[in-house]
Design a protein that fits this description.
It is built from seven helices and 14 strands. By secondary structure, the protein is α/β, with parallel strands linked by helices. The termini are far apart.
Amino acid sequence: MNSAARSTAIKLLAAAFGLLLAWAAEAETWRFAVIGDTPYSDYERRELPRMLNDIAAEHPSLIVHAGDFKSSQQVCRDEVFRDRQALFADSTVPLVYVPGDNEWTDCRHPAAGHFDPLERLQKLRELFFAEPRSLGRKGLAVEQQAGGYPEHLRWRLGPVIFVSLNVPGPDNNFGIGRTPGDEYLARSPAVIDWLRQGFAAAHRARSAGIVIVMQGNPGFKHHAAGLTHAGYRDLLETLSSETLAFAGQVLLIHGDTHWQRIDQPLRDPTTRLPIRNFTRLETFGYPLMGWVKVIVDSEHPQLFRFEVHPYRRR
């Protein structure tokens, strides 16, 4: 091979190598795991550490627990709260927890101990949200909302902004009948503001996606039929308008109704058609244990890919 041919061959190899590096740089992936509505029973409490180990073996960057770490019938004792805090703190993967109704709003019921819900929420804040870090042995730094709602978190993973909201099921603690309660009237504006701030942060960062995590199922079917639950109306209207104005993908994660599913139930209020850049992921819930791996794939048209993992006792 003469020198000219050798030079040409080297240039071609260098170009091919450069293209390979560019493809590798663009085709990045990140992984996180989703659980919720667990543990509800003694069996689930025994098995959850094993399931967390199974999740850790898949090497996700973090685990998201979408709320309800006890059944609504279990008494809301400090000992239960401390047990769950210790369980989550022992996770080898950073774990972000979102409050569920079973841990505070439902604690008013006699079966759950007849506690003051706001007092129980404050106890959750002391145990789970005392610092701007996730739970787990290796804490993940998070940003907390100012103004008395430290459970509202924001963080980033790769090209995605995450936002967590204290939105309990089944009615967002709206109140009795059509009259909103004082707690709802104080918290709902903070929820809406934090959601809007999350989208604003995603716009500024030119994020490929935003993930919103909360506990309550906001009732998409009823909302599509014009029968929106009062406790979720402002939230769903804000979610719709912000999603339509966002160029990236939106993933809403919730628990509450114990029906693991992945679908696109949010509709454009004008056309009544599904909003194509919106996806809903509902967690597993009692009596079925399991988790969902979410893969953030910069090459995937919808950004998010999902692997569903029912838990099988060993």
